[in-house]
Amino acid sequence: MKHLALFLFFWGILGVTGCDRDLKEHPLPESLKKELARKADPTIHIKDVSGTISLNPELKVSLRPSARLFIFARPEGVEAGPPLAVKRHSVFQFPFEFEIGQLHTMIDGTQFEGTMNLTVRLDQDGNRKSSPGDVEGKVQVIAGQKGVQLVLNNLISASEYNIQGTVSVSVALQSKVPENGSLFIFVRAENVERGPPLAVKRIPDIRFPYEFTLGPEDIMVPGTSFEGPMVLTARIDVDGDARAGPGDIEGFIAAKPGDRNVELLLNHLTGP
């Protein structure tokens, strides 16, 4: 028994030595070293913004199992493009204490400083893109500010993604407009030229200029996201078939969800 104990003891030493050798042969990647060093920096949290997120009870929102909480920071005056910093939470309950700062910046070398706008989004499908049913809240802060109160109080409705505007016919083609034609308005994702459109609307009685609205309620395949950029098309169809045919009049314009005052001109006559 004594010999067995000695054998196990020396075998353990050899095993540890082997593990040490393996570790030395597989050093940490430089990217991981930099990340660990960044987290160990005692000054990393000095300019963190922290506070509490609450959900307006009047909205009566039920959380889906897929719901996630996203916090974005953008410099004052910057509305588009990647945020300065972002943080995602999969487990949360309200009120929820948060913090966001230099550690959560998206681009190396970017400084979390100055005046910025914080946006919090309760994203029901968890994909980070705003969509109907999500709830948002915004507040302006200064880097390092504490005790911030962020309230989720804006329920995103489908109508906010509607594209609205006017369809008119060019002067040169006004005499070509058929009396019994139908107007089709539809969108496809940018660079998609074939297949079913993302959303479509048919208007049997045509009077120009025609004021239109096209949005998530007009999606052809349930569950499809109404998101852009897109190509908006309008077509006066002679035979009532949505496919282009001889004598149809159509026009195109680039668009994206939420666009207003879109002016779509029908200026192209299809034909053999």
Question: Which structural traits does this protein have?
Answer:
272 residues; five-stranded antiparallel sheet; mainly beta; Immunoglobulin-like
Commentary on this structure:
There is one protein chain. This protein has 272 residues and is mainly beta. The chain has 2 domains: 49-156; 159-269, Immunoglobulin-like (Sandwich), CATH 2.60.40. The chain is built from 2 helices and 16 strands. The chain has helices spanning 2-25, 30-40, and strands spanning 49-55, 68-75, 85-89, 96-100, 115-123, 135-142, 148-152, 154-155, 163-169, 182-189, 199-203, 210-214, 230-237, 249-255, 262-266, 268-269. The strands form 4 sheets. A 5-stranded antiparallel sheet has the order 3-2-5-6-8, with no helix packed on it. A 5-stranded antiparallel sheet has the order 11-10-13-14-16, with no helix packed on it. The longest helix is centred in the N-terminal third of the chain and has 24 residues, at 2-25. It is elongated, with a radius of gyration of 29 Å. The termini are far apart.
Question: What is this structure, in a nutshell?
Answer:
By secondary structure, this protein is mainly beta.
Write the layout of secondary structure elements.
Layout: H1 2-25, H2 30-40, E1 49-55, E2 68-75, E3 85-89, E4 96-100, E5 115-123, E6 135-142, E7 148-152, E8 154-155, E9 163-169, E10 182-189, E11 199-203, E12 210-214, E13 230-237, E14 249-255, E15 262-266, E16 268-269
